[in-house]
Fold these 3 entries.
Entry 1:
Amino acid sequence: MEASFATRHEGDSRFWAALWLYILLIVLLGFREPVSERFFDDFQEPASPWLVLHVWSFAAWLVLLAMQAWFAATKRIDWHRKLGVAMLPLAVVMLVSAGTAEFAAQKREVAAGQSGAFSIVTLTYLTTFAVLVPFAWAARKNPPAHKRLILMATASICAGAHLRTISSFDPALFWESQSYFAHLAFGFGGSMLLVAMGMAWDLYSRGALHPVYRVGAPILFATYVVAAWLYGSTWYSEVSTAFLSTP
């Protein structure tokens, strides 16, 4: 089935560039205020070394993605492959730094009397990224599959930026809502939207979905469905709060 899928379309470069700009805009909107508060506001708790490492590694990931897309579009395949080697350890740094910083943040929230339920949201972001990146690496000799797996991996860690962007307008939409659909739409909708954009481009430019989307997208979306249910469940809230309360 994949053999008949067109590797390139004349509009690919413009689409991927526009998608990257959209991701950059959402990240800037979503994290501008919290980064400013933690890094530059003396009245806020200063950023921990793990958080600093996470911020810079995440920024590096976005920059390298743009460079990778440019190298591929301009046929600089050697540079594209060399840079790809650097992105694998960077992904590890992102996971370790984000996981450590988020775990510490969740423990502080629980110590302040909050529920630990949000841990399932960030855990889902990180787990899906951790699963998708190795698949993307394994598919690096198959450019169409590789590119779409990278999009899905990046989308999984950008969902938090969408959530923060929405919360900046009305925090109650997610944080105070008891609606399962609100938890799904606002907690994970940003990731689903990015993947849906990629799928829509495939349908428009090729008339069919790439196998990566046909197989991977339903699994990814189902993972979000379960995670949103766990976030709103009393059972997970009690278990996660008890776990994060341990010294």
Entry 2:
Amino acid sequence: MFKEAEINDCVNCSRTCCLNCLPKAEASIFECLTKEDMDYLMTCKRNVIFNPGETIIKQNTSTTHFVCMKEGLAKVLAEGTNGKNVILKLISTHNLITAGGVISDDIRHFTVTALTQVECCFIDSNRLHTLLARNSKFAYELLKYNNKQNLQMLSTLIGLTQKYMPGRVADTLLYLKNEIFHINPFTYKLSKQEFAEMSGMTKESFIRSMKELEVSGIIKQSRNEIEILNEPELIKISKNG
């Protein structure tokens, strides 16, 4: 599964690796494990580097591993028929990737693709299942995390199905500024097609909506940078749909 040149041996990695890599809210998942449990989980861990455009996880494949994303930016998308995809969310540095099926049917329900260079740790799902069966606190924390991710994606889908195009574009821009890049203006690595897939519309419709926002003085855009000039008005557009 892994290219030999991309694999780094994690034997010497500290047992607190996942605790250090993840933010406090997610790290709590692993805090309930004993040293022996943590050693058992991390024994077969493999560190992998992905280049932009490479697939980290593929929809409808078996869930052989769950993934800790150490660094980089990736997109989570639901692949539809005839090449029609919906980007449900972006994931950045210090994140867990389960792709929906690691604790249910062992099938990956989403594709995860690198947008920048991404460094991940792949951890054996069978070892995870063993610990889930014998440590109820660990199972509870992981279920909480998984449900939180599912609710976030459900919220995205509700917005895509119930809002008009201006509201969807506003949601995308606010999400990128406030939840992904945390800066204004922000520099992005997304193509116009990927922006459109985040907003549930064609590329042409997205470009037209962005131009309308720019003409209205709400945003300013250049080649790879977007600045939100009037966030209260953009929030109003988002709420009105």
Entry 3:
Amino acid sequence: MRGRGISILSLALPVLAGIAYLALTGAPQSYALMNALAVLLASAAVLFLPGIESEQARRVLVVALITGLFVPLASGPYVNGIARWLPLGGFILHSGALLFPAITVLAARDEDYAPPILLAALLAASLQPDAALGLAVMLAAVGLYNATRDWRLVPVAGIAFFASMVAGLRGELPAQPHVERILVHLAMTMPLAAFALALVLLASFFMMAHAIAAPKPVRHALAGSLFGFSLAALVSNYPSVLIGYGAAPILGYGLALALARQTSSG
């Protein structure tokens, strides 16, 4: 139970800080309520989702999640030729932030197929295009290499770096208030608040990398993906995951943390 508590803390800490930011900056009340509901659902996933012991079942799941990354290309919606969102009911969720954290965990648990799993996610990022997903793939590969020293991850990281640069040139949209580039915009008006929010996000990164109950490759890859998404939000108009408005990354990292602690195998 202690391990699950640390996993929940690593997720809830930046989300709760983000909710405080939303209230402080006058965001619509529905934004804070949506993030609060998402973190409750994500925490429930960490606590109650059943374990996946079978390697075959984990591979079936990762194929399903990777397929989900390509769904926006068929379903839309398209905005200026960009399709990176999943329409689910009345909600539009960022597919990379929702699905890639769990893909990262499953890749880290599959030594044989980790590089092709990450490359498949990178292909989706290139087609959407989505530089944030590309950077998340790159730094997940870096984190996984740091833990395993698997040389095959080096070209994956290099390819992801160049693919992210290309996607960034092709796929930038105007920044959405309270969603994207939060730390950059907040630093211009409330630098101390921006610094505090950055520290909380950094604490989440270190908890994922070193404190959650999961094997080292899983911890480092998952933390790398968080760093990649966060880096994208600093350098371009991409969602500030966990601290900004948006249920997709909260649910995505909740599922990933649930998968990360489920078994010691893989």
